Amino acid sequence: MYKIPGHHHISMITKNANENNHFYKNVLGLRRVKITVNQDDPSMYHLFYGDKTGSPGTELTFFEMPLVGNTYPGTNAITRIGLLVPTEDSLHYWKARFEEHDVVHSQVTTYTNRPALKFEDPDGLRLVLLVSNGEKVDHWETWEKSDVPEEHQIGGMGPVEMTVRRLDKMASTLTDMFGYTEVSRSEREAIFQSIKGEVFGEIVVKYMEGPSEKPGRGSIHHLAIRVKNDEELKHWDEQVKQRGFQSSGIVDRFYFKSLYFRESNGILFEIATDGPGFTVDGDVEHLGEKLDLPPFLEEKRAEIEEKLSPIVEK
């Protein structure tokens, strides 16, 4: 039986690519590993940040939508992203850094019973830093040119929080279809892990009635979970269909292949292959320095570039 080894990436909406670029590169110290476009709407930037090579499990990705309105919070949405840092000392480093850069943040607290520091990006996206206690995916790579010291760098994604009306329906999808383990449950919250005991594939599901979230700037579009290769992706395509969900079918995104489906609460999942990765059209030293386009969009480069506002480095 195939196992989901953890998160692949998570995709959000930003109003301003320049603000977003400054925050994730210069404040959070992540590497911008790819500047490309939304393949379904090439007039829109798609920016990727992560570790040295944008390894699966480290990727935060953003679609720029300059005319987007505000997010109106509600249920049936992905509502917070956990990012892992090495130690509790790291939380104090980040608290001081957030104060220096005027980042909205909490006091040091706890989240999923781990020491934590909640914060928001310029679009109001809700995130939380959590102490990993040494948990790390083998292929995650430190980026030596980050402004953040190695001992405090963000390693990758931890718990992803979802808020839903029908908790049992989400639980069934995660456990019965994908093989996640339910590691805790209360009346209003359940925690699931793709690999038991490992935080880097964790999903926190909270029960909340009320209207659905109206997405806007700072909202989370979808969570992508990992599979190793095309063969596993085909297996999951069949599983999705057998459960009665509508699959997009397998889509070749050039940097990986994937499929999309909405579970019973309407939350959008992507299932994405580990490879070939972001070095398929660029060397490691120069990732994210220029606009990269998949081959099927290359002939439209001039037209695409004309519609994009330049990203100015601060």
TrEMBL record:
It comes from the Bacteria. Keywords: Dioxygenase, Oxidoreductase. GO terms for molecular function: dioxygenase activity. It holds the Pfam family Glyoxalase. InterPro entries: Extradiol_RC_dioxygenase, Glyas_Bleomycin-R_OHBP_Dase, Glyas_Fos-R_dOase_dom, VOC_core. Residues 6-132, 156-274 form the VOC domain. SUPFAM superfamilies: Glyoxalase/Bleomycin resistance protein/Dihydroxybiphenyl dioxygenase (SSF54593). Signal peptide: none annotated. This is Ring-cleaving dioxygenase.
